[in-house]
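Record type: monomer structure entry
Structure origin: computed from sequence
Chain ID: A
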Amino acid sequence: MLLTEFINEGENQLEYTTLLKKNLRRIVKYASNFNIKVGIENFGKEYSPFSTIDKCLDVLKSVKGLGLIYDSGNFLLAGENPVEAVKTLMPYIQRVHIKDRTYTKVDGSPMQISIDGKETYTTTLGQGHSLVKEVVELVKENYDNMDFVMEFDFAKLNITDNILDS
């Protein structure tokens, strides 16, 4: 089972999640032999086991030593409030991807439908609805040393302006 293989509608979610957690436990245990941390990134896809706050929390609580690569844009895509997500999942965060998404159309940005049926687009940091500034401030209040990584929609042909504006 690859971690990128998501469950499809109609498949046995309990069986899938049980196997996923079992595999993650083995991966985390093996990686610890080499002093390597393992983290999952939340993804906004409906059937992803890492999409919503509750789904992430279920997996993270079940797999000791597993961390979260938090992505505010992906939580917005999952129909979740990014600030509530960071507050709830704070003890598990290993790294933060700061990506902004908006419900306003952005020229050149591919549209993705959120789990709650809204059109979303990636945008320049601070110009969207992912509450990036609030998320960064909350994480900084709770961690002395955290990696923040700007992340953009690489499907675009030219993201240089987006990076410079951010």
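Annotation 1: The longest helix spans residues 13-32.
Annotation 2: The chain is about 35% helix and 20% strand.
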